[in-house]
Amino acid sequence: MKVKFSMLPLLALVMMALPIVPQAQAKEEPAAPTITLDKPSLNNGGEITVSGQAPAGAQVYVEVYAADKKVRSNRFDSKKDPKTGKIPYKFYLTNEMPAFYKIFTPKEMEPELEAARQAGKDWKYSEVLKKIGADAAYSAPAKIKIDSYQATIMASIIGSRGELLDAMDEKETKRESMRLVKGRFRSVNNLLAASVESTPEGAYTAKMKLRTGLAPGKYNVVVTAVTERIKEGDKETVKKVKSEVASFDNIQTFPTVYLDTAGTSINLLWPFLLTLAIAIFGVLMGAGGGFILNPILVSIFPALPHTIVAGTVMPTVLFSQGSGIYNYSKIKFINWKLGIGIGCAMLVGGFIGPKLTELITLDQFKFAFGWILLVLSGLMFWQTTPGYLEKNKKEQAILKEFKKRAEEAAAAKGAN
Amino acid sequence: MKVDFWGHEFEVNMWVGCTGGFLIAVMSSMFGFGGGPFMVPLMTVALGLPMYIVVGSSLLAIFFNTGMATIRHMQFGNFDLLLFISMFPAALLGGYLGPQIAKRLSPVVVKRVACVGLILLGLKLLDLY
Predict the structure, then answer these.
(1) pLDDT tens digit string along A255-312?
(2) Contact assignment for A314 to B97 by CB distance below 8 Å
(3) Closest CA–CA distance from residue B24 to any residue of chain A (Å)
(4) Does B112 touch chain A if contact means CB atoms closer than 8 Å?
(5) Same domain assignment for residues B102 and B119
(6) Quick check: is A74 in a domain?
(7) Rounded Cα–Cα distance for residues A96 and A145 (Å)
(8) Taking CB atoms and an 8 Å limit, are B32 and A310 in contact across chains?
(9) Are residues A43 and A174 in the same domain?
(10) Which domain holds residue A358?
(11) In a domain, A15, yes or no
(12) Domain count, chain A
């Protein structure tokens, strides 16, 4: 009896608590945000609005990524580790980077983004993500497969990427993926925009601007609502709910086409006209024209990776060189011994060079190319100085004379 | 190395030629251009060869580099077919139209214009304006 009596208040306590428990659970897991897009497709970029209802007071982030178009991204880590003092010489490579990736954040984050823009090229994507809380929404690139290679000087010389290392764990992959995302999309404006507006009741709208020339095809949109951030010392626990995936299409029509390896769309008329003008100019100068075409392409199409530019311009000049050799050989104007002798050394150089293109960033590419062009302009200027012209006049006369003789010899041979 | 060309004999220092050629090849294949504007001064100035032997032979040497670099770039997946298709006919057309225009222009003027253009482009790449 005594026992029964003492149980009663306990029972009452449990009964009182019962209705509270489900309520507490409901508070911990708020409803997922709803998501609606105002149109099903875009015509080569434009503006699309996403809206919906998120839990009241939540911070809303919108993640947008290309769903079916993947591109390559790579990074060569040659920065000294401040802790161990060693240079890692690691090469990271992925073929699964979405061709478009952007996170839209609440409007209040604009000052942070502005600060990142002010930091220039060396802004840190992962730090900014953390500061504006957008790391909670960062998910699509975190799942890509990244290969890492241990590069050595010897491996680079023979043109190999080095030894393939064991797959990285989830955390490492996420960290490296952020660096690759930054390396691929580079600027703050490409990756982040502060444009989500929320009412205190939780209704949100975000106007998303997509530039022209992005990958065509399906784009996925996911909304992440962060309801609570609990800080315990250095550790932060984020409570968030995600919406379902909504999609829209980015439609493009000819002559704008998507370059698969480059991961960007381009109006094909531009490279055509550019190459035509530069090829003519190149003939006038007595040189190829690759050294003008390359820097112009990387300057006016910032979305075109420098590796693709270098790798595609090279075969373009191959054929004009071949026809030039054929024409000279017809009139016996090539010294094969000399050409092949130096050619063998150049063969080795041509084996190593393309590997190095991968190892440098676009900024290093531009920097080095800038100096090459300045040296080249010096060489060009030297070729217009009176002393050179005087010497050249004699040489040209001899050249003409020899050409005539060679042509005559070829003609005589043909007549026989 | 001794080289015989149309009845003239030239002494060529192949060490200088090959080292220079190698360095030019690494640079030009890395940045994706032919390398002619560097090869011609190397062979005329550093090797002391006359222009008439250099024009054809330098082109042959460069062709080795371009061919190899093309294969390597393709191996690394740096080649984009559509971009190539849009540029290649233009390069052929330019190679056909160029010589016709060249007859009417002074090469010195063209080179001076190119010189200014290269400086501007170079400074742009260096982010100086």
Answers:
(1) 888 888 888 888 889 999 999 998 888 877 767 678 888 999 988 887 788 999 999 9
(2) no
(3) 8
(4) yes
(5) yes
(6) yes
(7) 7
(8) yes
(9) yes
(10) 268-384
(11) no
(12) 2
Distance CA A346, CA B52 (A): 21
> Which residue on chain B is closest to A340 by alpha carbon?
B61
Under 8 Å CB-to-CB from A340, ≥6 apart: which residues? B60, B61, B64
Do both B28 and B88 map to the same domain?
A: no
Question: Are B68 and B11 contained in the same domain?
Answer: yes
| Each residue's pLDDT tens digit, A330-382 | 877 788 889 999 999 999 999 989 988 888 888 889 999 999 999 999 988 88
Q: CA-nearest residue of chain B to A370?
A: B122
Residues A174 and A290 in one domain: no
A368 touches chain B (CB under 8 A): yes
A270 contacts: CB under 8 Å, gap ≥ 6: A300, A301
- Beta-carbon-side half-sphere exposure of residue A334 (alpha carbons within 13 Å): 23
Residue B8: is its pLDDT beyond 80? Answer: no
Its pTM stands at 0.81
Domain span including residue B72: 1-79
- Contact A214/A223 with Cβ under 8 angstroms? no
| Residue A204: closest CA among A60, A32, A107 | A60
Residue A119 lies in a domain: yes
Are A271 and B86 in contact, with CB atoms under 8 Å apart? yes
CB-CB contact of A201 with A56 (8 Å):
yes
**Reduced to 3 states, what is the DSSP secondary structure of residue A227?**
strand
The pLDDT confidence band at residue A1, using thresholds 50, 70 and 90, is very low
* Co-location of A230 and A294 in the same domain: no
What is the number of structural domains in chain B? 2
- Cα of B90 to nearest chain A Cα, Å: 5
Q: So what's the ipTM on this one?
A: 0.90
B46 shares a domain with B87: no
Give the end of a domain, one of A190, A217, A251: A251
Residues A234 and A194 in one domain: yes
CA A45 from chain center: how many Å? Answer: 18
Closest by alpha carbon to A206, among A220, A219, A218, A221?
A: A221
Distance CA A10, CA A16 (A): 10
Q: Tell me: the pLDDT tens digits for A116-141?
A: 999 888 899 999 999 999 999 999 99
Q: Which residue of B has its CA nearest to A316?
A: B88
Mark out the alpha helices in A265-361 (DSSP H runs).
Answer: 269-285, 290-300, 306-330, 336-359
Rounded to a whole number of angstroms, the distance between the first and last alpha carbons of chain B is 48
SS3 of A236-276? EEEEEEECCCEEEEEECCCCEEEECCCCEEEECHHHHHHHH
Residue A8 has pLDDT above 60, yes or no: no
